[in-house]
Amino acid sequence: MTVVALGAIGVVLWRSPLCGAESPVVIAPPAIDNPKVSGPVQTAVLAGGCFWGVQGVFEHVRGVKQVVSGYAGGDKSTAEYETVSSGSTGHAESVKITFDPAEISYGQILQIAFSVVHDPTQLNRQGPDTGTQYRSAIFYADETQKHIAEAYIRQLDESHAYPRPIVTRVDPLKGFYPAEDYHQDYLVHHPTAPYIAYNDMPKVENFKQLFPALYNDRPVLTSAR
Questions:
Q1: C-alpha distances in angstroms, 32 versus 159, 182, 217?
Q2: Which of 89, 119, 135, 147 is the most exposed, fewest CB within 10 Å of its CB?
Q3: Which helix (H) or strand (E) segment is 129 a member of?
Q4: What's the pLDDT score for residue 4?
Q5: In 3D, which of 32, 3, 11, 14 has the Cα closest to residue 204?
Q6: Catalytic (active site) residue 19
Q7: Which one of 50, 113, 156, 173 is the catalytic residue?
Q8: What are 82-98's pLDDT values in tens digits?
């Protein structure tokens, strides 16, 4: 393990030299967030590179009830993998996270996304994948989610949590379209596939190491619902 201190914020590398996952970053929780209160389940739609790894991490988060890989940002007519892969549809590979607001807050979900799921300073790419379909984005469902997301990005930028500015887009959610069945729970079903083992399994381990109180060893599978 290698630790590099950046003022009050530490960058902790848990990966081996052969891992391809983005390095996790220790960041403060959002100063503005929803309180944890009982109520109906809520949803968050996020994009941060290939949806296999994003879904794989959030399926291990306590309080999360379901995670679906899909497409957001474009029209329903183009929400199909081969078409989205052209980079010309406006869609981003995204995940829809359904969660219990009494167990985990919207802000905590964003903290996990920014800390271990992806590098929010990379423009239109993550790891080996390039194109607007792999952009970093938050698709907000209401003004509260928009306010929390924008305030958190300002907070992280002002604290210099990263060596470069955050490029994450904050856009209104106009629609979410589930991806094809073979994309769902891909990390769980193919943990030894080279792409997953190299790029995504380290993200799950990073999450377990940095957020032990939020880690659920048994993933919540989309295919079980």
A1: 15, 37, 29
A2: 147
A3: strand 129-130
A4: 30
A5: 14
A6: no
A7: 50
A8: 999 999 999 999 999 99
